[in-house]
Amino acid sequence: MLYISRWKALAIILTALAVCLCAVPNFFPESTVKSWPKWAQRHLVLGLDLQGGSHILLEVDANSVKKDKLDSVRDDARRVLREARIAYTGLATKGDSVEVRISKDTDVPVALAKLRELSQPLGGLLGSNGQRSLEVSDAGGGLIRLTVPQAAIADRVRQSVDQSIQIVERRVNELGTVEPLIQRQGADRILVQVPGLQDPTRLKELLGKTAKLDFRMVDSSVSGDQAMGGNVPPDSELLMSASSPKQPYVIKKQVLVSGADLTDAQPGFDQRTGEPIVSFRFNTNGARKFARATTENVGLPFAIVLDNEVISAPVIREPITGGSGQISGSFTVQGANDLAILLRAGALPAPLTIIEERTVGPGLGQDSIEKGERAAYVGSILVIVFMLLTYRLFGVFANLAVAVNVAMIFGVLSLLNATLTLPGIAGIVLTVGIAVDSNVLIYERIREEIRAGRNAISAIDAGFKRALATILDSNITTFIAAAVLFYIGTGPVRGFAVTLGIGIITTVFTAFTLTRLIVATWVRWKRPHHVPI
């Protein structure tokens, strides 16, 4: 057990040295590190509680998700009935259902069969609970009711949150912030933490906009003033302009092209007027739909609608077949840039409401760092003194291994570009105790072997060999607890779990390789007849 080959010893030293070197960038200014090669620029990122920043809790509007789901069911029902050439009247949304009355009684069975094709099992391929996305029933008298069950709405909310997390992450990253934390919290909430961001105003503006972009035709059969009086055609709706003074527009509900077909959006300036604009480009499908829409409606006004506000309503002078265009609407430079960010990131599936907002100042974070460092220093010094007084020379060996252990923890965290929080510092301090505990188990086992009559070298060898199972058991159970905290916990709890989990892995490495290497080297050098322990 004490014999370690030269190549194995070299591998242990090089592994420990390489991992410890990963922590070196943390000791240099950011400006210096940026001049290094890309692979050497990995470092620890201080969390919100250590460097300050913005904390925003968002909530997905479940009512809006429900409305969109019902609108989608209504549109699908209209499409299915038209394709089947079934006459109907009174297609409308009522509560949690969409109702439609079939004109001919003989068409009811066919209509039921066609509409039931819209119902799908919840959960996709894995859905085995028997619940479906839509319940289609015959209410009598030719009336068919399509009801969206609560389980389907809850599933749609879950999907909306998952999609919103990805879109929010893209929007925040466009701001150039460092290591933002964006994660689900509960069933319909999203937590956004941006370390180092002291003014969250612009962030809130970007997150608060749904950025749902549509290209639709203007309904010229009714003027805006007439629509304000309540005279709005059933297939159209009244929308207001985004710019002031507000101007009413009657816009058809049918979407010609949606913002989902955009592949890029960039801010720029109009070459003729010099005003800020946003240039956009469609994908192949969007370019084809946009070309068809502009070809069929030359001479008619069409509207660019963003979040139910009309940005502009130009007249189509000629077909636009290039798959690109521009949006103008009295933008400021920052307004055009922000709109481009929103369009590139994509539209949110539902509006997000800010229900909690906190800003942590850098002074408070610095105070947390100082107190965390003080706690780490005091705890480490007490551990070092205890090991020296209790185990003398072997206490020195243990303290060296623990120092390397802590350096390796910072190295692994830096390699992962992990975010260090105050609970994370607590996890590192706890790891110091766990690392020392492993050495205590080994040393106490050596003492027992000496009391049993073994000689020095035999006792040391038996101590390392027989303490292995105990140390593995204790560290594995602790690692399982850290894994559970990581997967179930959120925010600071995860930070604690990460440092604790990494600390356990490095502890096992140092206790059974580095400490053993140090002791084995000392044994070969001194050939002791008794153990100074």
UniProtKB/TrEMBL annotation:
InterPro entries per UniProt: Acrflvin-R (IPR001036), SecD (IPR005791), SecD/SecF_arch_bac (IPR022813), SecD/SecF_CS (IPR022646), SecD_1st (IPR048631), SecD_SecF_C (IPR048634), SecD_SecF_C_bact (IPR055344), SecDF_P1_head (IPR054384)
Domain Protein export membrane protein SecD/SecF C-terminal, first and last residues per copy: 353-522
Keywords, comma-separated and alphabetical: Cell inner membrane, Cell membrane, Membrane, Protein transport, Translocation, Transmembrane, Transmembrane helix, Transport
TM regions (residue ranges): 375-394, 401-419, 425-446, 467-489, 495-519
Gene Ontology molecular functions: protein-transporting ATPase activity
GO CC annotation, single: plasma membrane
Membrane topology: Multi-pass membrane protein
Annotated ranges, domain Protein translocase subunit SecDF P1: 161-219
Any one Pfam family match given in the protein's UniProt record, by short name: SecDF_P1_head
Compartmental location: Cell inner membrane; Cell membrane
Residue ranges of every copy of the SecDF P1 head subdomain domain listed in the record: 238-350
A Gene Ontology BP annotation from the UniProt entry: protein targeting
Signal peptide span: none
Record has Calcium as a keyword: no
Role description: Part of the Sec protein translocase complex. Interacts with the SecYEG preprotein conducting channel. SecDF uses the proton motive force (PMF) to complete protein translocation after the ATP-dependent function of SecA.
HAMAP family reported in the protein's UniProt record: SecD_B (MF_01463_B)
PANTHER family, A to Z: PROTEIN TRANSLOCASE SUBUNIT SECD, PROTEIN-EXPORT MEMBRANE PROTEIN SEC
Family affiliation: Belongs to the SecD/SecF family. SecD subfamily.
Quaternary data: Forms a complex with SecF. Part of the essential Sec protein translocation apparatus which comprises SecA, SecYEG and auxiliary proteins SecDF-YajC and YidC.
Name the record gives this protein: Protein translocase subunit SecD
